[in-house]
Amino acid sequence: MKYSNTIITGTGSYIPTEIVTNPDFADSKFYDTESKVFDIPHDEISAKFQAITGITERRYVTHDLNASDIATLAAEKAIADAAIDKEELDQIIVAHDFGDIPKGTIQTDTLPSIASRVKNKLGIENPNCVAYDLIFGCPGWIQGMIQADSFVKNGLAKKCLVIGTETLSRVVDVHDRDSMIYSDGAGAAIVEGKEENEQRGILSFKTQSFTQQEAYYLFLGKSNKSNADPKIRYIKMHGRKIYEFALKNVPGLVKDTIEKAGLTLNDIQKIFIHQANEKMDQEIIKRLFRLYGKREVPDNVVPMSIQKLGNNSVATVPTLLDLVRKERFGNHEIEEGDAIVFASVGAGMNINAIVYRV
Ligand SMILES: CC(C)(COP(=O)(O)OP(=O)(O)OC[C@H]1O[C@@H](n2cnc3c(N)ncnc32)[C@H](O)[C@@H]1OP(=O)(O)O)[C@@H](O)C(=O)NCCC(=O)NCCS
């Protein structure tokens, strides 16, 4: 059966317990890409880093946990929140980029897939529940939601579990200043197909992949430390290029998605944007508002978690959504009837957005 509406009926998240502050990096020896040491006091590096990114602390998983474990913990909460029987799930879509990386290794493990592991850990026996992974950079969770929406509206699924999970702390180069950006986490949502007269749920979406100049803006590369083994590779990025790419392309894509929903910016109550860098997010939103001729961005439209949670890739948007839905994120709330936007940018380079009516 084809459904007219794709509705989020439950959310869950796992916020790792280990808090790592900027001063915790005081003993780190950072090098540039030419392996030249940054011979400046850590306080200065830290202050600059905080000024650029807004990040004061981030969360790392404890040694005993992997991406599939925290994905399962987030999924259990989403299933309980939706009050569904887990055996009724038709699809489990898990977005990530590195899979499980057991502590002490720098080897990504995706055999079996993270979705298979999650299904196993959840104890779901139904073989008709199809479990698979989605590698799409930071926009992976949003892309999973778009995929679930397409399955639901084409009658191929009724209930889907969409998860974003990542343990970036396991792939950072401790000799690269940019490692301070990354963190760990998992967020999950249950979406269900419903037949409703009202225009509710996922109203529109848009995705773009830019791969000619941009494909390797995020990549795996050797440590910045001199004489590093080139066979051991870590997450690396051309941060400035990503920054410029995001500012140029994300505002227009979000506007297109709002228009596809038949709405304008005035109709949007909240924008859940990937938490990559506070300054970058503020600038994207400012440019989006300018596309509508607006000079001021009202307070309380864009919940920001980056200051305390860092950039945990695919987990940032579903985690924020979960916290706001459950009224656990300051004075940010969403109410029935609100129109909200999910938007992301990341490795690929991929960008995407969804407009959703609560
Ligand atoms: C990486 C990033 C923080 C660098 O910021 P930036 O403003 O582009 O940095 P620039 O290279 O232009 O350098 C500006 C200054 O910040 C310093 N700087 C750059 N990266 C830094 C870091 N990680 N920590 C501390 N200082 C940093 C530079 O040394 C330079 O200092 P100076 O003004 O004293 O010369 C920023 O580009 C960024 O966050 N980009 C997006 C990254 C992203 O989203 N990645 C994940 C995609 S999902």
Descriptive account of the structure:
This protein has 358 residues and is α/β, with parallel strands linked by helices. The chain has eight helices and 13 strands. The longest helix has 22 residues, at 239-260. Strand 4 (91-95), helix 3 and strand 5 (130-134) form a beta-alpha-beta unit. It folds into two domains: 5-194, Thiolase/Chalcone synthase (Peroxisomal Thiolase, Chain A, domain 1, 3-Layer(aba) Sandwich), CATH 3.40.47.10; 201-357, Peroxisomal Thiolase, Chain A, domain 1, CATH 3.40.47.10. The radius of gyration is 20 Å and the shape is globular. The protein binds coenzyme A (COA). Coenzyme A (COA) is lined by residues 45, 48-49, 52-53, 138, 177-178, 180, 237, 239-240, 242-243, 276-277, 280, 311, 346.
Q: What share of residues are in beta strands?
A: 15-25%
Number of strands: 13
Q: Whole-number radius of gyration? A: 20 Å
The average pLDDT is: 96
Annotated CATH topology of the largest domain? Peroxisomal Thiolase, Chain A, domain 1
Helix content: 25-40%
Could you say which small molecules are bound to this protein? coenzyme A
Order of helices and strands: EEHEHEHEHEEEEEHEHHHEE
How far apart are the termini? 23 Å
Number of domains: 2
